[in-house]
Each structure stands twice: as C-alpha cells, then as structure tokens.
Amino acid sequence: MVVARPRLWRIFRLPLRGQFNRMAPDWEDRMGPEGLVPLGASLERLSVSPRRALDLGTGTGKAARVIARFFPETAVVGVDLAPAMIEQAKRLLPPELAGRVRFEVADGSALPYEDGAFDLVVLQNMIPFFEELARVTAPGGMAVFASSRGADTPIYVPPETLRERLGPLGFGDFVELSAGMGTALLAVRKERG
Ligand SMILES: C[S@@+](CC[C@H](N)C(=O)[O-])C[C@H]1O[C@@H](n2cnc3c(N)ncnc32)[C@H](O)[C@@H]1O
Predict the structure, then answer these.
(1) Rounded Cα distance, 25 and 70, in Å
(2) For ligand 1, mutation pick of 1, 11, 56, 81 (most atoms within 8 Å of CB)
(3) Does the CB atom of residue 85 touch ligand 1 within 6 A?
(4) Could you report the per-residue pLDDT of 135-171, keeping only the tens digit for each?
(5) Is 2 touching ligand 1 by the criterion CB < 6 Å?
C-alpha cells in the first residue's frame, strides 16, 4: 500500500515501528541462513567492491553482516526505524566487524545521509521508498532488492513494479535472479550526464 501511495506512510509509520519493536527480541531466529541466499547471489554479481554500503530496514543486521563479510573492505551502515531492532543488531555484531559496521535508527523515507553517500544500497524484505533510496545511491552505484521467499515474502514488491519505479529515477541495467527459495532484482544507478 505504501509503495503505491507513499503519503500513507505518515499513518502507518508509528504502528509499524511498534510492531517491529515488539518482534525484535526473536527476529534473529525467525529466518535461517536460507533466507540470505538471494542476497548472497546478488553480491556475487557485483563486479567491484563498494566502498560504502547501506542496509535499509536492517532489522537485527543480518544483511549488513553478510555484506561486510562478503566485502572485507566495505564500510556498512544498517538502519532501521525500530530502535529495538537496532539494539539487537548492535548486540549481535561480532567484534571483528565492529570497526566497519555501524547501526543507526533512521527512517528510509527521510534518511540522514548526503546525496550519493552509498555505492551499494540493499533492501532485504523491506518497503522501498524509491526517491530517497535513489537520492543516497551514488551515480554508478547499485541497489539490490532481495526477497528471502520470493513472492511469498510478507514484504514483497514484484520486479516489474521495481523496474517501473526505478527507471524514471535513473536506474537501469536491471538483473533479476532466483536463488534458494527467494528472488532478487539488481539495478544500477546511471552515471550523471
Ligand atoms: C521484514 S523486516 C526485514 C528485516 C531485515 N532486512 C531482514 O531481512 O531480516 C523489515 C524491517 O524494516 C524496518 N522498516 C520498516 N519500514 C522502515 C523504514 N521506513 N525505515 C527504516 N526501517 C524500516 C522494520 O522495522 C523491520 O525491522
């Protein structure tokens, strides 16, 4: 609903934050490693290592940790609307990643980062706010939309909708993939000019 009508987010924001705060204590155990397969397959497609990556709607930080392990030089930021999720993400971060991965409470519809701040923006099972994610993706950078269980994922946006909404914002070179039980779409933000 929010993807079709982003203005509705003002109504849904607080109840959704409350709901995810309540789910935070056992979120980590709700999905096993199989849920991360589409993201892993997507990262394998990247031809260059990103310098700065953003995991939007990080939850307990699973995708952020995958990105950090896959790209040992990359600085990773995981953000989530729900403070209780961020608390868990910080608690679960292993010491060897602590120097490169940080977690912050932020709303994906209004991010506290400058334009083009990230070379890689990942959304795993997360509601996309297209204008804002486009704003923080650097020209030449990439966005990855991973759905752990494909169309059966509770928060799922079909690839045709993603393409439709991303194209006018300067994204292209779309790649769709299936891996494990899930799917993903990759998109490159075209260089300016
Ligand atoms: C379905 S969970 C997915 C969590 C994580 N990406 C994973 O795959 O385990 C969606 C997460 O997005 C967060 N979220 C929802 N809307 C958000 C927004 N506008 N900005 C930041 N986080 C948001 C929720 O709090 C929740 O933790």
Answers:
(1) 26
(2) 81
(3) yes
(4) 999 999 999 999 999 999 999 999 999 999 999 999 9
(5) no
